[in-house]
Amino acid sequence: MATHVVTGAFSYTGKYIARRLLADGHTLRTLTGRPRADDPLASEVEAFPLDFSNHASLSYAMRGADTLYNTYWIRFARGAMTFERAIENSRALIAAAVDAGVRRIVHISVTNASSSSPLAYFRGKGLVEEAIHASGLSYGIVRPTLVFGLGDVLVNNIAWTLRRMPVMAAASGGRFEFQPVYVDDVADVAVAAGREDANVTWDAVGPDRITTRELIHLVAGAIGRRALVMPLPPPLFRLSSTMLGLMLRDVIMTRDELASLMGGLLTSPDPPRGHTSLREWARGNAELLGRRYASEVARHYR
């Protein structure tokens, strides 16, 4: 069994990757900006600070590790934390992994990442992928679409909203398709990529191809509610999302997220690597869906 490092083993995707690796009998370390002594994984994972300004500390935490599983990224810019800074942080992490002698990096990216993308999120992911290519490290790049699971910020919060009101707005009537992927399936794909020796770039998408309108109705049906979908032009939908975000002290949907959905960037021509159907998963987890609001800002910035 080997020693591996996961960035953010107490966070969302990182937690599932950590569980997979521990179940396989590996020794695990995490680089984290939020150590949590009360986390169920805390007693099984050795925690080190995710301090991008301290190259020596980062390298020390990864010394002797076989693989770095990197889940670090930001969903949106906030305050001093910009996409440009996230790119530089990622480059610092990669450089420290090289100096530490890490054999392989498994990086969680996004479908259709490209350094030439007009969308800051996708462009940043593309630039980080290029930094990995140039590092000389063996790599597996995993490109999920929209990730769902208990406590996620999309499916959970749709259910949370529908438990309180029967109407939901959708840009252009919710006609845009995407391929959601279950967080546990993303972890499976990441760990499989870690076992490879060759450099690979894999899309990680689920078996369902659905529209946002269909998503709203399937979540409503799962929790026993009815839903009226209110079509809004994209600019008006963005305005309504911003206003709701101010009320909830959160970010509901960013401009990049809406543009990526409308542009078909959350789909893949590759066969699905995820096997969990969102339709079936929502029915099986109906009692837990939407019981609490999942705030991205509270998780990462408060």
What does this structure look like?
The chain is of the alpha/beta class. It folds into two domains: 3-147 and 180-204, Rossmann fold, CATH 3.40.50; 149-178 and 207-267 and 275-300, UDP-galactose 4-epimerase, domain 1. The protein contains eleven helices and 13 strands. The chain has helices at residues 12-23, 55-62, 83-100, 120-135, 155-162, 183-195, 212-222, 234-248, 255-262, 278-284, 296-300, and strands at 3-7, 27-32, 45-49, 67-70, 104-108, 138-144, 147-148, 167-171, 177-178, 181-182, 200-204, 210-211, 228-232. Strands 3-2-1-4-5-6-11 form a seven-stranded parallel sheet, sandwiched between helices. Helix 1 (12-23) packs across helix 6 (183-195) and helix 2 (55-62) packs across helix 3 (83-100). The mean pLDDT is 95.
